[in-house]
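User: quick one - fold this with iron/sulfur cluster bound?
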Amino acid sequence: MLFRSKQKAVAEAMAANLSMAAVEGRSPWADARERFLRNKAAVVSLILLSLVVLACVFGPMLLPHSYEDTDWDAMAMAPTWHNLHLFGTDDLGRDLLVRTLIGGRISLMVGLMATIASVTIGIVWGATAGFLGGKVDTVMMRIVDMMYAVPYLLIAILMVTLLGREFYLVVLTITVFSWMDMARVVRGQTLSVKSKEFVEAARAIGVSTGSIIFRHVVPNLLGIVVIYTTVTVPGVILTESVLSFLGLGVQEPMTSWGVLIEDGTGVMETTPWMLLFPAAMLSLTLYCANYIGDGMRDALDPKDR
Amino acid sequence: MSDKKLILSVRDVKVHFKVKGGNDWPWTPKKTLKAVDGVSFDLYEGETLGVVGESGCGKSTLARSILNLIPATAGEIVWMGKDLRQGSEKDWLAVRRDIQMIFQDPLASLNPRMTIAQIIGEPLRVHRPELSSEEVMKRVRAMMVKVGLREQMINRYPHEFSGGQCQRIGIARALILEPKLIICDEPVSALDVSIQAQIINLLKELQREMGLALIFIAHDLAVVKHISDRILVMYLGREMELAEKHALYDKPSHPYTRALLSAIPIPDPKLERNKVIQILQGDLPSPINPPSGCVFRTRCPLAEAQCAGERPELRRLSADTQSSCLLA
Ligand SMILES: Nc1ncnc2c1ncn2[C@@H]1O[C@H](COP(=O)(O)OP(=O)(O)OP(=O)(O)O)[C@@H](O)[C@H]1O
Ligand code: SF4
Ligand SMILES: [Mg+2]
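Assistant: Sure. Structure tokens for the protein plus iron/sulfur cluster:
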């Protein structure tokens, strides 16, 4: 009996709770996450890309070889279990698996750093132009147009031949020529958000300019920034391999996917695995990044709703 | 009306935009678009002024110039005896506590990345920073109940609401500071007819309860009929007629008002069938290049030679009607 009434009390309390409790709203971000998770290709790509990144970061520590030491028993060896040369070795007897992973580190690092740098520049440039508008906007956007017209490979070759083949130079070269898309997109979005009625509503209330920027405009730029960041990554990684392939990448014995692919192309007929494995890793990464980018766009772009 | 306190006085306000044609050269001189060209009216405590006119006649621009969202080019905007156009930033902040605005597009006027609680509470955070967040929440909840929103919705985001609910959120945001005047820029144009009535009734109720003055903008006379005390009819940035509601509906003094009135459907089918809808001839002239004299003369059925002469000003015809028609 006592138990019964207790149960009833609990049930009543729960009912009361239910009707009183505020319904948790679903933020646009939560909606986007759900849409992203429904996209199978994007989720699979995310998992694969995570595996690639983990392998590149931790793989070399777990394997018994170093990326620069020669294994005198195994010169230009095809993939084998012997000595755990799973991807084989190159013509100098260096383990290709370790070299691919180390090269991946460089490629991904270049990709990451150049993306961060170019995205940051693009956001600041585009948002400033969009906010200020008028003449400042016109001048800043003409500069962007001019940047597009610069023959970038020529400049890249010049920079690297003059200053040397350094990691940071590769990043710099890529950054200088890949921030403009982001700048254009962010400017467009800033202009559009700035003219939305909710910004006017905030001004009517008396919200300060700083708060309008940080509470009302910036949060509404984030979606498009995320989308464009995810599509910048594969572009930047690809540019890095193009530069490396042209002999403008990092210096031996350090390597990157682009450098490895270039080495492999030369000996394609005799030791094809030297081309196949790095090329496969690069392709896998680019595919995954592109699918993730697509998933992000579908998830975040309000127009498709 | 004389026993009521005058709160807002708009004197000969003009808002001109410098505009450039789409394919003009950069060095072509900019043209002047006269969106609002000399509008004057007074507004008393607790009163509702309806503002009516075709799309593009400058209603929104007039509303925005009162709040300095678009600065007026000329004229005086006197709020509680103070000319706001001479005011400092601080004066404006004080005014923004007393005058609030409700917008045409309910969803677009709410930040999609903020919850309802944040949206309705924002005016309090700006003007009453001393309030604790519990106090803010308490007031937000109370206001939600007042405008007919369920309290449970407090943590939701705007996209989860219907248009009518979004407009209620906009109203709650406008009311939370207990302002003296709310400018409603076509608050129901984007809503279904059945919801329109709900929102208008809600505004009327809240107005009575809180003693608000309203400036209620609409593009036809049917919508403002139930809520307004006086009505201002605008055309091409100019005032055509400013009259007490009954005077305006019963004996409109201006040909443009008559044309607008004839477009309102009459509920009685017999009368409706025999009614002559007066369709205005010609197109709306461009506010960049308005007709000389009476701006309505290119479409006015009564236009005469003298209408092209001097620009007619609003003049008082009777205690409750002012009109700018030369023949009225
Ligand atoms: N920022 C601006 N720059 C240039 N012209 C403008 C600007 N804002 C409005 N206009 C012009 O001013 C005129 C009046 O516009 P306004 O928005 O006030 O009209 P409205 O009466 O509110 O119309 P609607 O019923 O469509 O809302 C229009 O011709 C419009 O094109
Ligand atoms: S002044 Fe002339 S043109 Fe203007 S409304 Fe009167 S009659 Fe028509
Ligand atoms: Mg308008």
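One thing worth noting: Chain B touches chain A at residues 64, 67, 69, 92-93, 96-97, 100-101, 103-105, 108-116, 122-123, 126-127, 151-157, 159-160, 170, 173 (CB under 8 Å).
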